[in-house]
Amino acid sequence: MNNIGLSILEISHRSKDFEPVLQNTKALVKELLGVPDNYSILFLQGGASTQFAMVPMNLLHKKAAYVDSGVWANKALKEAKLFGEVNVIASSKDKNYNYVPKNYTIPTDCDYLHITSNNTIYGTQMKNFPDSPIPVVCDMSSDIFSRPVDVSKFDLIYAGAQKNMGPAGVTLVIIKNDILKEVQRVVPTMLKYATHIEGDSMYNTPPVYSIYVCMATLEWLKSIGGVPAIEENKSGESGFVLWRSDTNPLFTAPARRKTDRI
Fold first, then answer.
1. Residue of 26, 155, 163, 176 with catalytic role
2. Is 81 a catalytic residue?
């Protein structure tokens, strides 16, 4: 890269050649999603599944509210129960998760509300997000960058990159800076959001290749018109083809099957 005769995997992650990759990828996320200035953009490891635990470790002081709308939402609330009281305020488990719960009351005595924007296994998606009196945490792993969202309505968004951004190995976290408060538990250094905000996602060696591919993907997304262009690129009765080989040379995946669509 940069005509130095070395690949992204051969250079130091703290070198003058990689640092622009990280900063450019952050800038693309900020631009494409319209992330406000009072948020931090992090690239972490461990997938969205690690976020199931990191969220309550850092944010759950006494009680949290969860909407149980699918397999991943259910896994997230199970992890949260390890750190405090969990109030499942709505669930579609009674109908095998074939609908998205609506018209639920969000309790004001909870530390945060956790929702999952899209449920890949059951094919349901939140078309509208709740107006919440408490901080909102959202798992957007499977539909981030597929439609415009008002980031300011959320206090923390997380997403595994392997669905819509790039290869597995990096997880995007968008976090409002003032949501973090000290909890009354010992949180390991690597599992503290504050650690990675202060270290600019380089407290430890970041997954450089995954971040680089995310940058290339987001550059392509910007070149075709950004998130609104993806939203307009509908295919069939429902869902969309995000990566078309004729428009994106990085990806050659076939169109999703109907049962896989959102």
1. 163
2. no
Among residues 72, 143, 155, 176, the one annotated as catalytic is 72
Residue-level pLDDT at 247: 44
Among 68, 139, 143, 155, the active-site one is 139
Helix axes 208-223, 19-33, angle to 10 degrees: 40
Q: Give the residue from 132, 223, 209 showing the smallest Cα distance to 170.
A: 209
Whether 8 and 18 have beta carbons less than 8 Å apart is answered as yes
Express each pLDDT in 40-84 by its tens digit: 999 999 999 999 999 999 999 999 999 999 999 999 999 999 999
Q: Is the dihedral of CA 156, 118, 86, 171 positive or negative?
A: negative
Task: Clarify whether 220 is annotated catalytic.
Answer: no
CA-to-CA dists, residue 5 to 10, 206, 208, 211, angstroms: 10, 21, 17, 20
How far apart, in whole angstroms, are the C-alpha atoms of residue 105 and residue 90? 9
- Amino acid of residue 13: H
What string of H, E and C letters represents the secondary structure of 8-72?
Answer: CCCCCCCCCCCHHHHHHHHHHHHHHHCCCCCEEEEEECCHHHHHHHHHHHHHCCCEEEEEECCHH
Name every residue whose Cβ is closer than 8 Å to that of residue 174 and which is 6 or more positions away in sequence.
Answer: 29, 33, 35, 39, 40, 41, 42, 151, 154, 156, 157, 158
User: Is 200 one of the catalytic residues?
Assistant: no
- CATH code for 19-209? 3.40.640.10
pLDDT in the model for residue 63: 97
